[in-house]
Amino acid sequence: MDEPGTDERRGHARGRPPWAPGVSGAWQPPRDGRHADRLPWRSTLVVTVIVLVGTVFAAHGQAGTRAPLDVLALLLLLAGQAFLLLRLKYPVLTAFATAACAMVYLGAGYPYGPVFFTVAVGCFGAIVAGHRYAAWSAVAMLWAGHVLAAHWLYRWLPPTGDHAAPWGQELVVTAWVVAILAASELARVRREQWARERSERRAAEQRRADEERLSIARELHDVLAHSISVINVQSGVGLALLDSDPEQARTALTTIKAASKEALGEVRQVLDTLRAPGAAPRAPAPGLGLLDELVEQASATGLTVETATEGVRRELAPGADLAAFRIVQEALTNVVRHSGSRTARVTLAYAPHRLLLRIDDEGPPTHEGAGGSGSGLVGMRERAAALGGTIDAGPRPGGGFRVEAGIPFTGRASTSGVGPAAGPAEATKESP
Q: Which of helix, strand or coil describes residue 248?
């Protein structure tokens, strides 16, 4: 994103004046159009009342030393206020126009007073909009014109018999200019900070939304991949045994019905979080407490699953419990889909600070994709990494395939991203 005033600098860099067509941000209205149809008439009306009333009082106090107010003075004051209506659409034009009106007003010998306030508002708007150099140039033009009129051209300018202004007065004018520019710069910096904070908040919200979508997609993948794998295997069994063994085919169809019902329930639970963000789920999230049911589902496909627990069982944080369950589920799904073996072994080892999961498949693979090399393994790694855990998946030395995962009990995200995979040596060291 370009900082405010970039287009103006680009236009000058190309040797083109700021009022040239295509040089946005200077004499042209802003591209975003946020203020294109809005005129700041309320604040301009307040400034107009202050300037006109203050000028009338100033004229009484400077009677005899400055020219009296007349129609031209009022027209110059009102012209400056009219340009203030354009300060949101044309900030640079407003800064120079208000400075020019004030310079002509002072050069005509009219009383000092709130006319400087009009210039301050115009230049303030230009600086806040990012056109700092244009605002500085407008103020410098006014100051130079005032010095010329007050110290060299006063002989030929009204009022008649005027004398040169004291140089000490220029110090007051200079201090006033510096104060205006400093306040404007402070407001500009603060506005840019607010813009950055809003941008960072939007980016953080977008990241959270992306993470939520990724989490939902991962959850749906795990649910559907497992259930559809079970349905696919059982439908094949049912078709093969429909004529020769109707009772076994009926069992396969019953398993398909149960698997599809469970899948629909879990999908509905995931989608409910989309329909009612922040609402508590109607059913508890799956965890290792449902491991026996998962083993039964795998057994229904003809897969024999052995489970073993090492160490003292501990409760996991909800996120860690869900991740452990999904990793085991995905690993068993890969065995069903990609392995020629009909046996698998699931080991839960409770180490001092984390749970070590090991899912062994004796193989051999049925095709090149044995073990699951697609989004399933990617999803397992993402789940583990999100909790500060590790995943190691690959062929076993004695044949078959092994998935090893280390998940912290607290389920807190790792600050270093995805750590190195937990190998057998690390698992042995942390085993109780």
A: helix
